[in-house]
Design a protein that fits this description.
This protein is of the alpha/beta class and 288 residues long. It has eight helices and 13 strands. Strand 12 and strand 13 form a beta hairpin. The structure holds adenosine-5'-triphosphate and magnesium ion. Adenosine-5'-triphosphate (ATP) binds next to strand 3 and helix 1.
């Protein structure tokens, strides 16, 4: 994980040859389902010759916390970026609340209540903590940014979440540690009151205490049941602790889907180790 700048999102222009179903093509047989917030059907995405997602079928239940696991490069970030309007899938269907949607941009997705904490964070280092908390949703009065209000609300919100080691919310984000930045990014997403939260490795740069804080926060949100969450992490123990269900992404597909209560650290670890050994054997065979 590095707090590097993000690549630019896919442009609003249609991908040549794209086969993404548009809302006008809603399949009446599918019908609106109230159980799932998100449903992905046969979603594919490639970057030049790299196939990041080949045929993803996934669902996110209402109020559910879904853990998404997979090797480095398995396509996890690409998947959540397709759900937040950052990437446009090449093909497949995305249903939100049972309705087919084509997410045009991150702002479009945000207007529908979908918010993301990127793995590479997307905080603006030169701005203060409180400006980052309100990025793209600044309260404005008489066309002036309400700095004092933002500062007070950001401070209150961080404290209410138990994030107490930031100090002055007027400090530039560039001056914070990686873990502190991560906490701000998660706090910002939670603050947005979204109905879907996509958390791409929110614990990666965290110390034990901050990590526990974020896990508690996810637990609290889960208990309230108002928000549905996809959380990506490499620590299977943490995933099992906070998630209702676990999916594993391998070779651009979801290959494992179980309630967290029906799987175990051993099963998940075995799955990944088997995968690694298989890939290594294949590499050795190819190398002759
Ligand atoms: N913007 C991009 N341009 C070109 N290739 C990309 C881009 N984003 C991702 N990829 C490629 O797509 C594949 C999937 O990447 P992705 O970042 O989704 O993996 P990941 O599962 O999130 O991995 P990690 O656990 O390391 O974060 C990789 O091979 C990666 O190199
Ligand atoms: Mg990633």
């Amino acid at each position: 994980m590095s707090p590097a700048t993000n690549p630019t999102p896919d442009s609003g222009a249609d991908v040549p040859g794209a086969d993404v179903a548009t809302p006008s093509e809603t399949d009446p047989a599918t019908g609106p389902s109230t159980d799932n917030v998100f449903e992905l059907q046969h979603v594919a995405k490639h970057f030049g010759a790299v196939v990041a997602l080949s045929d993803v079928n996934l669902r996110l239940g209402r109020g559910e916390v879904l853990g998404l696991l997979g090797d480095n490069g398995a396509g996890k970030s690409t998947l959540v970026k397709a759900l937040c309007g950052f990437h446009r899938p090449d093909s497949g269907r995305i249903l939100l609340d049972g309705e087919l949607i084509a997410l045009r941009s991150v702002d479009h997705a945000r207007s529908l209540g979908i918010d993301i904490v990127y793995q590479d964070l997307a905080l603006v280092n030169q701005l203060s903590v409180y400006h980052n908390m309100f990025l793209n949703r600044e309260p404005v009065r008489l066309r002036l940014l309400r700095n004092r209000t933002m500062r007070r609300l950001a401070d209150e919100h961080l404290k209410s979440m138990g994030i107490s080691n930031i100090g002055d919310v007027g400090v530039e984000v560039a001056k914070l540690s990686g873990g502190q930045r991560q906490a701000i990014a998660v706090a910002r997403a939670v603050f947005s009151d979204s109905k879907v939260l996509l958390l791409d490795e929110p614990l990666a740069a965290m110390g034990a205490k901050e990590g526990a804080l974020i896990l508690d926060l996810i637990q609290d949100l889960r208990a309230k049941g108002r928000v549905s969450i996809i959380v990506i992490a490499h620590n299977y123990g943490q995933i099992l602790e906070v998630c209702d269900r676990v999916n594993v992404l391998q070779h651009g597909r979801i290959t494992f889907d179980k309630p967290a209560s029906s799987t175990s650290l051993t099963e998940l670890t075995d799955l990944m180790v088997t995968e690694y050994r298989k890939a290594r054997k294949q590499q050795n065979l190819e190398a002759g």
